[in-house]
Amino acid sequence: MAERMTTDAPRPRPAAEPRLPTLGEEITRPGHLACPGCAVPLLARTFLKIAGPRTVFCVPACCFAVIDGPFPYSSAGVPFVHCAFETAAVTAAGVKAGLRARGQGDILVVAWAGDGGTFDIGIQALSGAAERNDDILYVCYDNEAYMNTGIQRSGSTPNGAWTTTTPGGKQGRKKNLGMIMAAHRIPYFATVSPGYYNDMVAKMRRAISTKGFRMLHALSSCPPGWKMAEEHSLTSTRLAVDTRIFPLYEVDDGRFRVTVNPPQRPVSEYLRLQGRFAQLGAAGIEAQQRAADEDWAALRARCERHGNVND
Hints:
Oligomer: single chain
């Protein structure tokens, strides 16, 4: 277990948001095995309240495969297909084809995988399903490392972040998953954060109702892996958006649109909440700020070309 961060970081003042949306019945059962503060149960419970019981999860080796519970027990509340690490997308495509052959093509089939099984090990199956426009919904819950196997770095691990395989901080930038999927010209892609709940619900609803291959990239806080206290879990996912480290946007048939334009906060507020960035000095934090500013400017420019800028 990684050492937790004990620094008393300031909590952001929550911005006024509309009332929480009305969702459907509770599908998830009690008794999941997630660590305290894990964002995965919140993501899955919210998703299933929208999707309903006619849903199938296809889950590779990852934290969620453990969180659901050991056979014969399951907390998901819907059929839960365990598959190999690299096969989430193609397994979901196969399940969808089988259901369609049985006259049950209206059942929602979801590939639900972590960043290791999406950015790295499963990217070939993901690319194939996207290119074929298979009628599945792919959800990547991104905790930015291989958390289930001991906090090793992944293609999603941010630059400078501690992991057990990058004890001095990762060298190299995080893959831009949104640009990779936009290049496949899929019908719908969106980033979501539990810290902006209403935005997340709206995008989940949109993705569920869309046909063809669609994808949600969800920031999923991990207190042990991020070296922070459990009570900072949602705070961190909101700060990631407010500091523009994790922008909230969607790509609708190739057209980019920022869905949340937050009041910019310095990236240092997000970084110092987490012990995995403790080795960064002033120069490292400044470099992180420059990178976040550059990425945000590039995203805004892309949105402006499509006439989709929401100030």
